[in-house]
Structures are given as structure tokens and as C-alpha cells.
Amino acid sequence: MIATLLLSAVIFLPAAGGVAALPFHRRPEWCRWICVAAMAMDLFLALNLYFLDFSAMGADVPWIGMFGIHYALALDGINLPLVTLTAFLGLLCVMVSWRSIRRGVAAFHLCLMLSVSGVIGLFLATDLFLFYLFWELQAIPLFFLIGMWGHEGRARAAVKFFLFSFTGSLLMLVALIGLYMIHGKQTGNFSFSFFLLRDTLLTHSTERWLYAAFLLAFAVKIPLFPVHTWLPDAHTEAPTAGSVILAGLLLKTGMFALLRFAFPLFPEAARASVPILLSAALVGMFYAAWIAFSQQDMKRLVAYSSISHMGLMVVGVALWNTLTLSGAVLQMINHGLVTSALFIMVGMIDERIGSRRMAAAGGLWGKAPVLSGFFLLFAMASMGLPGLNNFVGETLILVGAYQRMPAVAVIGFAGLVFTLIYTLRLTREVIFGPPADDAPVADLDFRETAVLASLAVLVILIGLAPGPLLRLFQGPVGDLMAAPMTLVAKSAAATAGLPGF
Asked: Going by C-beta distance under 8 Å and a sequence separation of 6 or more, which residues neighbour residue 334?
């Protein structure tokens, strides 16, 4: 009971803070402080979970009994760091919106906090119907964040995000109901429990159709080439907090769902899809890097860099060994920190000079040295400089890939060289390029310094001492490695006479 209450508090405290801020819509400062307090409390609760026994931290309460739907949650070494990352970035989102959001402040924070609650719930859910509800809850408020508080092209970007996201989600829902019905006919137990559904016997064709629907929904969110085209527009038009939610959290939900649900539920189909996943991921890495190199808008460049970085994580999941999975999970956290920091800094620069174009931001080193120092640090982390966090995750994926498929490791390494090229160009033009004019640029204030310093500490700490995180992953990654082998054998024993479509 205590575990249920504690995990529920971690999920719903952000949403409660957003709702509590609504009555103070005429007092924007109060709205902001209420949401800061709610997110700070949520982060405190999430950090306390590290000191508890994971095996006892679960919930399974019947909810809609006639359909076998339970309020089921579980905590382990993979989703706990992601929950903590969500609470942390949610707090930063409130702080970076302090000056930039001036209209509809209460409504903005409600949408922001609902989205954060949706992401946390998604990471913890083990009932797939509950997972689907949180999957939608994280996306709907983000649609409004982009469409109502974004930049000039916000309406088009929001609609594009909606169409891509909900098309994939509806296909996943159809597949989920199909899996539910097949399992119920086989066992007489109609349930949405992941732990029960993963034992369902499926024909080869049925498994592949169901997996394809799940994979499409998750690929859109990752986003995986070629269903990535919504992301650059969404990032470009979203407010800074929206970009942080997108890059730091939403993209991780697709990757998390791929390794947590899609591969264990449909192991044979997942194994058959590995060549497709590797091809799409590697092509996406080079394509996105090439497009990023040609960008003049800093925000759009960072958006394309996200697609490139996520491609390497897909490689890690597709190759499915201990090193690549550990590296992929670590990179989810690393990418969430570094890319969020870059988007936050682009927003800070835009607030100061009124433009996101690199040429307009030239010469920042001589005008705002503290801001420039942080920008250089996060750019080096994005490039995978040894001693910073991205280096560890990328190295694990590449070493694990080399053990399985050396050619994939070589191509993936070449993709990282492309990352180096466009990130160096971004740094050179923004920090060290010729000044666009002689107008002064204000350096960071206390609030902005606190935001960036907290991110910088984590980037350096994970880069120098990744051991505690990797030890957290060890148990659940071992479970993931073991489960699909048994299930592949089960799936291979399925006959065409089993219930299907």
C-alpha cells in the first residue's frame, strides 16, 4: 500500500501542482512558484526511491475489473533514473519559462505539468492499457504547448505533431486490443498485464503484424527515419520548455517502450526486424547530420542532432547485448541532459538578441563569457568528449556493436564524426565567430546560472563516474537479455492453428 501511494505521488504530484496553479491565473508569479514547489517535491520523492528496495516497489490494484485492467506500476534500475530525469527536467522547464511565458501562464503550466505526469506514469506502468493512457497523456498537453505558446509557425507544427503521434498511437491501440483478445481466448484470462501478455503464443504472421503496429508508434516518438519529419518543425516552433520536454523526455518514451515492451512481447518479429532497424537508424544518423550541417537556425540544428543521436541508441537496442543495452539506456539519460541544455541555451540567446540565427549570435565569447563557457561545455559533451557523459554511453554502444557486427560499429563511429563536424561549426559561429554588431549581451543571471550549473554537474559527474548508474541497469538489463531467448523458442513452437487475426 505504501509503495502504491509513493509511486502514485511521484506520478501525479506534477499534475496536482498544475491544477493548484489554475486558480491563481491572475497572479503569474504564484503560478510559477506553486509549480516549482510541486516539481521540487516530486524530485525529492524520486531521489528517495533510490534508498528503497526495488523488489518491493510495485503496485497492482484492480481498476476496471470486467476488462482485466489494473492500476499496475513497477520500479527497477532502468525506469528509476528516467523518472528522476523527468522530475529534474520538469523543474528546469518551469524555471526556464520564468520570463519567456507572459500570457496564459496558469494554463501553460498546467499543460507542462500534465505532460510531465504522463511521462513518469508511462515509465512506471506495467498494465499496457494504463501505459497507453499515459502515452496519450504525455502528448496531448504538448500539442497545446506547441500550438498555443510556440513561435510563428506553431499551428502547422502542432498539427503535424498531432497527426504523426496519434496515427501511430491508434495503430498501437488496435494491436494492443488484438493481443489482449488472443491472450484471453488462449488462457480464459482477459488481462492487459505486460507480464501475462508476453507469454501469449502467436503465429508468425500475427506476431509480425502486431509488432509492426507497436514499432510504428514507438518509431514516431523516437523518432526513427523516415517517420522523423515532425520533429524539426515541432522543436523549431515550440517554446523552450516544450523543446526540453520533446528532446529530454518524449523521445525517450519511444526508446524505452521499444526495449521494455516491443522486443519482449514480440521477440521473433523483433529479431526479424533488426536489419530494418539498423538500416533506418544508420541512414537517419547520416541524413540528420547532413541536414544539421546546412542549418542556420540554432534550434533547428540541435533538433536534427537529436535525430542523429537517437539513431545510435536504436542501434544499441537492435543489437541486443549487455553492452549495447546498457549504453542505450545510459544514452537516454545523457541525451536528455545535453540536448535539453543546448535547447535551453538557444532559448536564452534568443531572449537576448531576438534571433536564433548563428550569424546573429556571433562573438558571444567576448560579450557573455559565462554563457559562452556553458555553451562550449555542452557542445563538447554533445561531441562525445572523453570525461563527459556522452562519451561513456556512445563507447558502450560501439564496443558492444563491434562484438556483434563490426561493420555496424564502424558505420556508427563514422556517424559520430559527422556529429563532431556540425557541432564544431555551431560552436565556432556562435561563440567565436565575428560579432554581428557592437550591442552588449547580458550574461547569465542567478536563475539561469543555477539551471545550467545543475545540468553541467550531472554531465561531468556521469562522464567521470558512470559506475553507479551502470550498476543500477545491470539487473534489469540481465532480465531483458534472458527473457527474449525463452520467448523466441515459445514463439517458434506456435502453430498456424493458434488464435490470430
From this structure: 381, 389, 390, 392, 393, 459, 462
AA identity, residue 272: A
Residue 125 bridge partners (DSSP)? 73
Q: How far apart are CA 15 and CA 114, in angstroms?
A: 5
CB 260 within 8 A of CB 122: no
Measured between alpha carbons, how far is 158 from 147 in angstroms, rounded to an integer? 5
Measured distance CA(83)–CA(485) in Å, rounded: 28
pLDDT tens per residue across span 73-111: 999 999 999 999 999 999 999 999 998 888 899 999 999
The DSSP 8-state label assigned to residue 435 in this structure reads: P
* In 394-444, beta strands by DSSP E: none
For residue 98, give the H/E element and its range.
none
- Domain span at residue 458? 273-464
The answer to whether residue 368 is domain-embedded is yes
Written as nine digits, the cell of 387 is 570525461
pTM score over 0.85 = yes
Whether 451 maps to a domain, the answer reads: yes
Written as nine digits, the cell of 409 is 560499429
Separation CA 37–CA 34 (nearest Å): 5
Residue 56 lies inside a defined structural domain of this protein: no
- The answer to whether residue 495 sits within a structural domain is no
- 193: nearest Cα among 124, 267, 128: 128
Residue that the C-alpha cell 523543446 belongs to = 243
Helix 230-237 and helix 154-187, axial crossing angle in degrees, nearest 10: 130
